[in-house]
Amino acid sequence: MSSDIEFKRVASRQNPFLKSLRSRAREAGRAGAPVWLEGVHLCQEYLARVGLPAQAIFAAPMPEQGSAELRALWRACAQAPRVVLEAGLLDTVSDVAGAQGVGFLIELPAAAHGDAVDGDCVVLDRVQDPGNVGSILRTCAAAGVAQVLLTEGSAAVWSGKVLRAAQGAHFSLRLLEGLDREAVLARVRAPLAATTLDGGASLYAQDLTAPVAWCFGHEGQGVDPGLLAAAALRVFVPQVAAVESLNVAAAAAVCLFEQRRQRLARAAA
Amino acid sequence: MSSDIEFKRVASRQNPFLKSLRSRAREAGRAGAPVWLEGVHLCQEYLARVGLPAQAIFAAPMPEQGSAELRALWRACAQAPRVVLEAGLLDTVSDVAGAQGVGFLIELPAAAHGDAVDGDCVVLDRVQDPGNVGSILRTCAAAGVAQVLLTEGSAAVWSGKVLRAAQGAHFSLRLLEGLDREAVLARVRAPLAATTLDGGASLYAQDLTAPVAWCFGHEGQGVDPGLLAAAALRVFVPQVAAVESLNVAAAAAVCLFEQRRQRLARAAA
């Protein structure tokens, strides 16, 4: 029997493995614990950037009869433990994965929380909306900022909503979550730049060619006063008068790509 | 009896006005029809930027006994028709408005769809996520781009989700929705700049000081090929290799604020 057709089959709703998958899909993963990835795109990204999952879960009928994307994922996981769930069972884990026919269980490496964070990074201070956190992770990966620290009170970075919004950016970033203010300040080496509406300097007046630790804050309250006080730089995005503020993910995109613009210009000079 | 205490009271779940409010809250408003605004912030913004609503709806107990914000809204609407719903009834209209104790019914002016769109504008081509559409409206208002056109298939711009995400930006923008490609091309006067991953030029190599009609496309499929073909300018946001793309709202923020940066620099020169 070739390895290409080796897999486990789950047929019962009461199967303990299926129950554990449901728990993983409900709860956000944490460093050191398994994380549930849903759907074709995230599984493709994981394979491409990290490697084989701890387990690959497919929905019956057999993936060999499914779409080209599912067949490719099935074959790519031939050397990983594969599980096929009988029709309808993946829907009991998650609507998203059920509709797409695939999900991965992955093991997060335990984060080395004590290590310093050198160079560029982003600090998310109690950013609560999973869509905002996911969008900012995607922007970080696109702008070449490879380290993101999240304080307690931010959306759980390995939750399904953040994973879907970030579209695989997680796998090219170093992520540290659950930090308090002191832990952030103890680890970050680059000068802190906090965005604020009060008393800041224009983003466009800053030299952003040296490493920066960007700090973006809570959707309503902004950056924590303690972090703001520790910031070497307070900046605002110059907007037209009478408008309240940008969405935090939009503000992050403007800041990180202004940094990228300046560095591209310096590299070309 | 002073006008300050004149209002209607609704006590029955079967009240026809209450039923009509529920319909308004479920369905997105359209130009020429009433729109339901939920919660303290949107109502404050509407009052500040537009004026009195067609009707102001409050939850019992009396707003005079509520928060300072609710009391201020109650008094500011003394010259508008005010309705007080008995305890719990506003929750049957919407969770959001129910929790915050206030909502407005407003009348949208019928849009002059046939008119030309001169100067800067943004075209949203089938941008589907309400959070993305709302964030882009907010970015437009912040960047000083006051006209937004939406093609059929975009999220309904006057829906509750888009209104909440835009935080009042609607009230400082000219909004035209439900357009097809030909209607967009017939109205827009400025050269069209479409964002694309294939064959575009770097955003940072463009002179963006003259009017631009920015075109941002569907989250998965990008800009419609017909609009792309009509674009005078195809641009990409220069990102690091091996990363798929930015979230559309993040890409819009980068483009519109690069335009703003160039114009501020020119004005200061």
UniProtKB/TrEMBL annotation, chains A, B:
Has the keyword Transit peptide been applied to this entry? no
UniProt xrefs under Gene3D superfamilies? 3.40.1280.10
In what residue span(s) does the tRNA/rRNA methyltransferase SpoU type domain sit? 122-257
Name the source's superkingdom.
Bacteria
Q: Name one GO biological process term.
A: methylation
Q: Which UniProt keywords apply?
A: Methyltransferase, Transferase
Task: Kindly give the InterPro entries that the UniProt entry links to this protein.
Answer: Alpha/beta_knot_MTases, Ribosomal_eL30-like_sf, rRNA_Methyltransferase, SpoU_MeTrfase, tRNA_m1G_MTases_N
What's one GO MF term for it? RNA binding
Q: Which residues are listed as membrane-spanning?
A: none
What is this protein identified as? RNA methyltransferase
